[in-house]
Amino acid sequence: xxxxxxxxxxxxxxxxxxxxxxxxxxxxxxxxxxxxxxxxxxxxxxxxxxxxxxxxxxxxxxxxxxx
Length: 67
Hints:
Helices cover 16% and strands 25% of the residues. By secondary structure, it is α+β, with helices and mostly antiparallel strands.
């Protein structure tokens, strides 16, 4: 069994009106900053352990255009 990974994700609207997000693993001090939703999805997908045999992407990760 692969250990779970827990992330803190904060999403907000920048003063200029654009998308902003920060992502940090709870067991890591480094915070990653993003200005595009697809970059957040790509980062979280890349962090997904490959050995789980599960699909970490797709609609569960926010793809599909909903708001």
